[in-house]
Amino acid sequence: MSSRRLNLGGQYQLPSKNTYRGFPLMRTTQAPTSAAAESSTWRALSRVEIDLFVRSMMTAYEVVGVQKKHGRMTMDKVEDPSELLLEFPPQVHSPKKFLFPNWQKLFRFSLGGKVHLEADKAAVPRVIFGMHPCDLHAVQVLDDCLFEGEADSVYRSKREATLLIGVDCLPDEHCFCSSVGTDRTDSGFDLFFHRADEGYLVQSGSERGEALLRRHAPQVAKRDEEAPLPLQVKPCEHQLDFAVDALAPLLGDVYDHHLWKEIGERCLGCGACTLLCPTCYCFNVEDRMDDDLAGGERVRTWDSCQFDHFTRVAGGRDFRSDQADRQRHRFFRKYKYLWEKHERTACVGCGRCSRECLANIAPVNVLNRLFVEEASPELKALPANEYQPDMVEIIAVEDLTNQDKLFRLRLNTPIHFTPGMFVAISIFGLGEAPFTIASSSDDDMHVEIVVRAKGALTRALHRLQSGDSVGLRGPFGHGFQVEGFAGRDLLLVAGGLGLVTLRSLLLSLLANRQSFGTIQLLYGVRNMDHMLFQKELLEWHGSNQLDCRFAIKEPGNSWGVPTGDITHLFRNLDLQPQRTSVAVSGPAGMYRFINPLLLRMGVDEEALFLNLERHMKCGLGKCGKCRINDVCVCETGPIFPYSKVKHLKEAIER
Amino acid sequence: MKVQVPYLSRIEGHAHLVVDTKAGEVVECQLEVVETPRFFEKLLVGRHYSEVAGLASRICGVCSHSHTLVSLMATERAFGMEVSEQVTSLRRLLMYGEILQSHLLHLYFMAVPDYLGVNSLLAMAQSRRDLVARALRLKKLGSDICEVIGGRPVHPVTTCVGGFHRFPEASELQRLRRCLSKALPDLEQTVELVAGLDWPDFSHQAECLALHDSDGYPQFGETLISSAGLQVPNSCYREMIREYVVPHSTAKHARINDETYMVGPLARLRQGFHHLSPLAREVADLQGLSPSTNNPYLSQGARLVEVLHCVEQSMHLIDHLLLEGLKYEEPVVTCKAREGVATLEAPRGVLLHAYSYDKEGFLTSADCVIPTAQNLANLEMNLRARVPQIIDEEPDTFQSELEKLVRAYDPCLSCSTHLLTIDRL
Amino acid sequence: MKPRVGFFDFTGCEGCQLTILNLAEKLLDVLDLVEVVEFREVQGHCNEDLDIAFVEGSICRLDEEKRLRMIRTRSKKLITLGACADLAGINIAHEEAGGAELAMAVYGSDSKHLQGGQARPVSVIVPIDGRIPGCPVDGQEFLSILHALLLDRPTNLPAFSLCVECKLAELPCTFEQGIVCLGPVVRAGCNALCIEGGDRCRGCRGLVDNPRESSYHRVLETFNRSVDDILEEYRTYNLRIDEE
Asked: Chain A 55-74, CB below 8 Å of chain B: which residues?
């Protein structure tokens, strides 16, 4: 970024934007590789050697680290290295206080006569020994904000004079660093001390860190290098329910959400959240006088967007007087405004704000609620989320034929579909395949599918029983518009497995039987062994709800139906073409005979619907496998009116 | 001749001095205490034991630590609690801090101006900057001790029933130790200044009352000892001390066996003379103080002796505490429905609080006996005796001599007016 | 000529005047900046006009009220010093028992001269130009208010709650120990001294300008404390608040 005017004299380089922009996002499990990681060295040392190292550093630097004082842990100047803690819980306050202190002199002035400006003396050379990974990330957020444009030289002088030494952390119930990708880092530090089986491993992160080791722990620096430890994923139970990059768009939709008011009413306005935040840096500037009033200092003190007066202007008007607006501002700044500017959330998931909020305002809970209540449409845009199946339970399995089984699945959330649409069923390790829904669209909590054991996936499905779970995505596709058939006669023509689609249609029609005219079902199969839903077919045949006719290609069937293909059934067909809609579903070849027959009988091209199933792998119109010429079946089909597909060479003609 | 000094300044609290003489005879001699009564004993009633000491502290800003500690000790007595040796040592150190703070404030800002012939030490900020700076520095020595141990120079916050919420760090005690040794040159100059003052020659035999402290010089103790040889455990204080109301004062007066008596530095010095620290003893000898001194003006000299004593004892106590090492103790409190009486030597003398509690730990009655109230009757006796000796002086000198006598008692009327014992007719 | 300053005390413990004397070397700087013409505790009195009057203590009796009005008349600016002057604080507590009756109970029949009178804050009697809260006041805050007066700057107090200073001092929250603390609604400025000392906040600095009462009550509920419990806490320093 060219606006980042940071000249550290070549002595110390901040990690480049490219290097640290790649820190792992949520659900990235592999270790990020970067220049820093590749060039860093790892050496073993003992706690005693660390004490000696610290003692030696104390001659050249002010070393600060976490120690126990008055029964609590605080980060402060180290007087006795043996009291320095390297393993400490995340509730220790942020090291921000050393890089961007609450009380920072900007310059001195004198009163009476000439105004005399005196620059602050050089920043104290300091080593912060005890930066958790989230805090190292937080420093990078501060860098983003304070080096942008006209760099803040007071911060810069402290930043340049400070070496950062990282140590690892065990998250508590407030931490959510793993959700924002700050639970580990391979850059942004000079040295990093990792706990190893016996003692520690020190990882170098910069040339300055190497030099520090050479000068203050020469024995360790000369030691042979050890193999690097893999980056450890932190076990945070407190998590965002969605990926971090969805935050900015999510917030874009919830500016007026009622949740802000609810939080505003709970908030005490104490500002603890911002004061404890390792990346909050809003400040106030004021003059503090010397006791003799001869001069004074202009000082910078922390301020908070949660305070009364923060946005008050001369004349008393307050531009953000409502606590709800103040809380929203805080969230927007952390997760949207700065994200959009720097491609990094300004929250590092350290949990300090929620840990000490008396009103229990926890960002993770707030964001998850916003997500559930407001932003589920965004779900489909999230990486991998649309490919991720929902686990559903098999509640019944029925043998239809020797090779076909009917599975009844119970859904976790209701779905809306029309007959002809399909779902994608997964068995992990074997993959995923599309199955047409065989059940009625009236029941939105269950779906039935017919599975013919042909491949590995379907054979595995056949081994499953009631109570087992399978993955389900969908529904996908575009089915029959049942409402459009109201008042019309229906002719359903099924061949082989094509009956599955038409069973769904037929059940949906029967659920609302009085809305339609006559219904006829023509069903052709190769032999009885391939005949699906035999029990239901007999029931329908025996009922007066519809007219069922069957054709079996191979001779000698036990039902005594005519031998021959389905075209035979058209001979005595009593059809009023103008008021009949026709649904045809069967193998590709079947259409080449049936379509001309129907059109010759006077069926309207718009009233003739074809089921043109292809290999609908993704269901999302992306994978390209189901395209018929330029038409994507899973988006606009598989149910098409003849008029829409007759010109497609690949549809029927082949 | 009638001399009236309305709003007597350079004392703690509000009082008028009225002296009326006719033909060399004293017709009227009264210290009219006009401080508004605040009924502290009443407002303590109904409060939870954890609140009581904090409220009792507000009786007086100058001796807030004395009131706090005696209040805590009265509660502990009521609950039958013993505190550790460490807690007692820290409390003793806190008392040394308060006595230093109070005595040095008094000597420099209230007493010395009378003898230097100025209205106020503050007026000398330019002409005698060294003196004013030294006074403020020394006063800070005492308030620093209070701050480290009690958390604040006025109205402590670390103290609690059973001990302390917070114990000082070793480094804080080390710093105090350094401040104390660094103060020795300032103290030397103070001795030079105060011991060189010309105390009026006046003696007035009076009974003196102080605590018997088994550890030495009177500070903490549970037995009241009078110079006339009376010995009474503090729980039986009502048998010894009789308090009564006088029309011209909002502070009660007190007597032992119908006689007025004195408490405070001179009373302590007379009883604890042989327990003085070496430097303190030296300063006592330098001023000619002894167990039989009975010039009330020399209370100022006794104050100086106690300053040295407290500084030396504080250094020993800090060394002892550092040697033992400070350990955090969690106070454990079990409420009991009982009465408890506690006494300690506040800067101005014996201070007593007597409490009763119910079994939930809420205070049901309180009685506070305050040093200045015990001294008031004796002070009036002194004034009556002093007037005939100086009746022929110029009015200004006459008034000034009487004011010196009042100030020798360092009356602290902001506390004395909060006396709220039930009248026992 | 240096601005002329006076210190006055009414009903109270005089701990605030003492705190100012505890400023030690810094008091010398003050003495260079202003002329202290009255300071009853350590100095005689006069009746001259003043630029700034600092008033400690509550106003309880008619004679006190008269004296206060006199001080107001001859002072350009009048600033209250400490909780008694600011809130009537601890002194108000005895009102509940009824002053005269109380005196009777305590001092007996000869108690006509012992009327306590109703303790009132200074601002109820005369207009004030600023206030320094606390029991006792904070010496450093006294200095910065004095500086503001001398430089003719506004004498603003922190508008945020004590929680802020508690966090800055990295102190553990008192509520964590199950102890109710007034910190969330009380004005900051004391550097959380009582919390640092292991105690809780009892509210001596008064409420913030805009206390979030309903939020605070909600917090109390989560700690199983009732609004009555907290009103008892408010009583110590006479923190008046809508009792809704």
From this structure: 69-71
Asked if residues B414 and B62 have their Cβ atoms less than 8 Å apart, the reply is yes
The DSSP letter of residue A224 is: P
Touching subunits of A (3+ CB pairs, under 8 Å) are: B, C
Q: How far is CA A578 from the centre of its chain?
A: 51
d(CA A613, CA A619): 12
With CB atoms and an 8 Å threshold, state whether A69 touches B169.
yes
- Sign of the torsion formed by the C-alpha atoms of A464, A469, A473 and A475: positive
Contact C180, C222 (CB under 8 A): no
Identify the residue whose tokens are 């965002």: A240
Closest by CA to A584, choosing from A571, A570, A564, is A570
Model confidence at B146, pLDDT cuts 50, 70, 90, reads very high
Q: Which chains, if any, share at least 3 CB pairs under 8 A with chain C? A: A, B
Residue A557 in tokens: 């069937």
Q: Is the bond leading into B388 cis (omega within 30 degrees of zero)?
A: no
CA angle A189, A190, A193 (to 5 degrees): 80
CA-based radius of gyration for chain B: 21
CB contacts of A272 in chain C (<8 Å) are 163-164, 167
For tokens 């009789």, name the residue: B242
User: For B202-243, what is each residue's pLDDT tens digit?
Assistant: 988 889 999 999 989 999 999 999 998 899 999 999 889 888
The first and second tokens of residue C160, run together, are 């945020």
Phi, psi for residue B206 in degrees, rounded to 5: -150, 155
> What is the C-alpha to C-alpha distance for residues A434 and C110, in angstroms, rounded to an integer?
102
The 10s digit of each residue's pLDDT in A442-495 is: 888 899 999 998 888 888 899 998 889 898 988 888 899 888 898 999 999 999
Q: Which of A50-64, A537-551, B13-27, C21-35 has the highest mean pLDDT?
A: A50-64
Nearest partner of A132 among A197, A79, A73, judged by Cα: A73
pTM for this entry: 0.74
Contact B58 C93 (CB under 8 A): no
List Cβ neighbours of C236 (8 Å cut-off, separation of 6 or more).
Answer: B51, B55, C90, C93, C202, C203
Torsion sign over Cα B251, B254, B260, B261: negative
Q: Are C38 and C6 in contact (CB under 8 A)?
A: yes
In this structure, the dihedral spanned by the alpha carbons of residues C109, C114, C115 and C116, taken in order and rounded to 10 degrees, is -130
Nearest chain C Cα distance for residue B113, angstroms: 9
Reported confidence tier of residue C45, pLDDT bands at 50, 70, 90: low
List the beta strands (DSSP E) in B53-141: none
Q: Give residue for tokens 């900057």.
A: B129
The token duo for A203 is 């990882």
Q: Do C159 and A307 count as a contact with CB atoms less than 8 A apart?
A: yes
DSSP letter, residue A226: P
Q: Is C130 left (phi over 0), alpha (psi -120 to 50) or beta?
A: left
- Give the minimum alpha-carbon distance from B351 to chain A in angstroms, rounded to a whole number: 33
Residue A272 is nearest to which of C143, C163, C209, comparing CB atoms?
A: C163
Looking at the predicted structure, is the pLDDT value of residue A10 above 70? no
Distance (Å, rounded) from C-alpha A601 to C-alpha A590? 17
Of B14, B125, B165, the CB nearest to C199: B165
Which of B96, B396, B361, B377 has its CA nearest to residue B261? B377
Alpha-carbon span A407 to A395, nearest angstrom: 8
Q: Is the pLDDT of residue A14 over 70?
A: no
**Residue in C211, C219, C156 with CA at minimum distance from that of residue C189:** C156
Give tens-digit pLDDT for A348-373.
999 999 999 999 999 999 999 988 88
Distance from CA of C112 to the nearest CA of A (A): 48
Q: Which chain B residue is nearest to residue C67, measuring alpha carbons? A: B7
Q: Which residues of B touch C22 (CB under 8 A)?
A: 139-140, 143, 153-154
